[in-house]
């Protein structure tokens, strides 16, 4: 896994100039690899991006040479009233598209005459397992990003996650120039992460909070190391999540003599049951792990399980 301590290794001279206000774009190397960025918009902002008969979104796609998708009407990111935009393309094209979209929002709400540009916020959607790369050891990476961009950057707490949800929100606050410098740095950091690219390749997977987590070990990609299916029962019966964990990694969840499982259950206050050997989710070799309790208890338990599974990735 790439170290997140040395931020300078990923920052070009042009970007260092950008922190002084001369430019806000990172000097990306030309690459044919596809990059992705998801962020949230209000219904009104979504309408502004689409335009009458889709005219504006078509123009944005042409100008930026990217593919821009929006979640359906009323298909919101869990816990918000915001729709999701997914921009995909070469990394410099993705950055251009995001800037065009943010500038459109600003121009529709801000009268520039005689006034300083106000700060605004944009919320990026980032897979949980990739947030460590943005934070860095003891927060070193995110601190460097804040210093270079002059934007405020905040990552939502794991306790704010909905049960079964694997994404966190990265909120970037500042002027558009400050936001774009921060987004440059964040996307550059994430685009080299195979887990990020694979996860973002699934456009919108929030209906019912059914989420698939993608992991890579070496060159082997697999999407069933961790799967989640959330079910909210009737009042008084508690909530239940059944997740699938690859059989080869179930030991990380159980621990020696079931020690890890007991600890997760005690801390989260959730009831956790692991299926017997050879009792797999249909069509897979994934063991069934059923978590029952309050939404908060399930969230804490899933968070702890994800951390155990993350360690499998980090050691390959």
Description:
The chain is α+β, with helices and mostly antiparallel strands. The protein has 2 domains: 7-200, TATA-Binding Protein (2-Layer Sandwich); 210-314, K Homology domain, type 1 (Ribosomal Protein S8, Chain: A, domain 1, 2-Layer Sandwich), CATH 3.30.1370.10. It contains 11 helices and 11 strands. A 6-stranded antiparallel beta sheet has the order 2-3-1-4-6-5. Strands 7-8-9-11-10 form a 5-stranded antiparallel beta sheet. The model is unreliable at 1-30 and 208-237 (pLDDT under 50).
Short note summarizing the structure:
The protein has 316 residues and is of the alpha+beta class. Helix content is 37%, strand content 25%.
Which terms summarize this structure?
five-stranded antiparallel β-sheet, elongated, 11 helices, Ribosomal Protein S8, Chain: A, domain 1, alpha+beta, six-stranded antiparallel β-sheet, 11 strands, TATA-Binding Protein, disordered N terminus, 2 domains
Q: In which range does the helix fraction lie?
A: 25-40%
Secondary structural class? alpha+beta
What integer is the average pLDDT?
76
Q: In the CATH scheme, what's the topology name of the largest domain?
A: TATA-Binding Protein
Number of domains: 2
Domain K Homology: 33-106, 118-191, 237-310
Region (Disordered): 1-24
Keywords: Repeat
GO molecular function: RNA binding
């Amino acid at each position: 896994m790439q170290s997140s301590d040395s931020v300078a290794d990923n920052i070009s001279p042009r970007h260092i100039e950008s922190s002084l206000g001369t430019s806000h774009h990172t000097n990306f190397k030309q690459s044919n690899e596809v990059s992705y960025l998801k962020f949230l918009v209000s219904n009104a902002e979504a309408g502004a991006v689409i335009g009458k008969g889709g005219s504006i979104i078509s123009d944005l796609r042409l100008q930026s040479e990217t593919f821009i998708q929006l979640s359906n009407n009323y298909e919101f990111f869990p816990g918000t009233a915001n729709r999701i935009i997914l921009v995909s393309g070469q990394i410099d094209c993705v950055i251009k598209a995001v800037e065009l979209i943010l500038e459109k929002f600003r121009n529709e709400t801000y009268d520039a005459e005689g006034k300083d540009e106000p700060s605004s916020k944009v919320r990026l959607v980032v897979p949980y397992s990739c947030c460590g790369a943005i934070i860095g050891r003891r927060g070193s990476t995110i601190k460097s990003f804040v210093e270079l961009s002059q934007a405020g950057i905040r990552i939502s707490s794991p306790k704010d996650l909905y049960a079964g949800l694997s994404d966190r929100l990265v909120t970037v606050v500042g002027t558009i120039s400050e936001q774009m410098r921060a987004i440059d740095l964040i996307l550059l950091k994430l685009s080299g992460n195979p887990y990020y690219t694979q996860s973002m390749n699934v456009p919108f997977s929030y209906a019912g909070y059914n989420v698939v987590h993608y992991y890579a070990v070496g060159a082997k990609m697999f999407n069933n190391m961790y799967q989640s299916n959330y079910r909210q029962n009737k009042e008084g019966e508690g909530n239940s999540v059944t997740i699938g964990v690859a059989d080869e990694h179930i030991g990380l969840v159980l621990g020696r003599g079931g020690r890890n499982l007991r600890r997760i259950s005690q801390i989260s206050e959730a009831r956790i049951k692991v299926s017997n050997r050879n009792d797999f989710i249909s069509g897979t070799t994934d063991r069934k792990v059923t978590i029952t309790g309050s939404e908060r208890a399930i969230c804490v338990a899933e968070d702890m399980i994800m951390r155990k599974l993350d360690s499998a990735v980090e050691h390959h």
